């Protein structure tokens, strides 16, 4: 991670901008990823514009942060979130999306998780991060395991899907 830049490997993080409304609208309303994001209904541009405006609040106030993952050439490829930020226990949950299948398996997610861990440790001074992953999401399981997250438990029948119930795995990394 370079000094004062949220940049590592092939990617960088940046804050959400009002100009991101169309791409956020596309990502959030893609029903193929709703199961992963626990979404059950589409988002309007009005709601997303409000979300983008509210995203400028401090993480200590909003308890979450979403950053756009973009290539070094400036192409947005996904988003990464810290959620359930707990400043007393110094921990937060992690969510990540690389939206376009053509952008997957190019190292963007790996670089993003490494950068997020460094950011969470060095700037937010967090002690631990966690991720909740459906047991059949093998790519995410591999991603988090390869970045030092350990499986700490299984939530049985945690997620109701169109195909029935699925277990959710919880991974944790002490920074």
Name of the CATH class: Alpha Beta
Helical residues, percent: 25-40%
Strand order of the main beta sheet, please? Answer: 1-2-3-4-5-6-8-7
The rough form would be described as globular
Strand percentage:
35-45%
Walkthrough of the structure:
With 175 residues, the protein is α+β, with helices and mostly antiparallel strands. The chain has a single domain (7-132), classed as 3-Layer(aba) Sandwich (Aminopeptidase), CATH 3.40.630. The protein contains six helices and eight strands; from the N terminus they run E-E-H-H-H-H-E-E-E-H-E-H-E-E. The chain has an eight-stranded mixed beta sheet with strand order 1-2-3-4-5-6-8-7. A hairpin with a 2-residue loop joins strand 1 and strand 2.
Topology:
Elements: E1 7-8, E2 11-15, H1 21-28, H2 34-37, H3 45-54, H4 59-62, E3 65-71, E4 76-86, E5 91-98, H5 108-122, E6 128-134, H6 138-146, E7 150-161, E8 164-174
Parallel strand pairs: 5-6
Antiparallel strand pairs: 1-2, 2-3, 3-4, 4-5, 6-8, 7-8
Helix pairs in contact: 1-3
GO molecular function: acyltransferase activity, transferring groups other than amino-acyl groups
Domain N-acetyltransferase: 11-172
Pfam families: Acetyltransf_3 (PF13302)
Summarize the structure.
29% of the residues lie in helices and 36% in strands.
Features:
alpha+beta; 175 residues; Aminopeptidase
């Amino acid at each position: 991670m370079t000094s004062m830049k949220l940049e590592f490997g092939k990617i960088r993080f940046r804050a959400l901008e009002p100009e991101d409304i169309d791409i956020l609208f596309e990502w959030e309303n893609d029903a193929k990823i709703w199961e992963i994001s626990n979404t059950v209904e589409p988002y309007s541009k009005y709601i997303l514009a409000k979300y983008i405006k509210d995203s400028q609040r401090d993480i200590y106030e909003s308890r979450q942060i979403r950053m756009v993952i973009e290539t070094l050439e400036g192409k947005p490829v996904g988003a990464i979130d810290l959620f359930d930020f707990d400043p007393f226990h110094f921990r937060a949950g992690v969510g990540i999306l690389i939206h376009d299948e053509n952008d997957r398996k190019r190292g963007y997610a790996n670089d993003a998780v490494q950068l997020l861990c460094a950011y969470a440790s060095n700037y937010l001074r967090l002690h631990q991060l966690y991720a909740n992953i459906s047991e059949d999401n093998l790519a995410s399981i591999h991603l988090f395991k390869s970045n030092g997250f350990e499986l700490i438990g299984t939530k049985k029948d945690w997620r109701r899907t169109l195909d029935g119930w699925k277990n959710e795995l919880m991974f944790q990394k002490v920074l």
